[in-house]
Amino acid sequence: MSSEEKITTDIEFHDAFEAYEWQTEGVKPEGASEAIVYRDEKNGSHCRILQLPHGFKGGKEPLEHDCDEIVFIVSGDLINTRLGHRYSPGSIAVFPAGTKHGPLAAPEGAVTFEFRYYKSD
Fold this sequence. Notes:
Structural class: mainly beta
Number of helices: 0
Strand content: 35-45%
CATH class: Mainly Beta
Shape: globular
Radius of gyration: 16 Å
Number of domains: 1
CATH superfamily: Jelly Rolls
């Protein structure tokens, strides 16, 4: 396949808040809404935009995932309620699988861009 065959011929960038289907059912954390930007159907890895509502309060226990997670704060602030740290837009976090983190709150609401990577066996 020549490199010319891999050139995009369609719109490359989209308005993230209009181009994707937003859902709330089954979304974690509860009360949030998400738009799946990309999903690898083979291993479940995915990239999503997550909207946390104004006044969002996470649980009382740290979170832990069976995947690597990268979180970029697009807007709003996240507060680690266990540690008392506040993270502002432009902050990024990397949590390897099994790393406990949070819980998080977003008193003014927040939007994050997240990538969850599940290793293939």
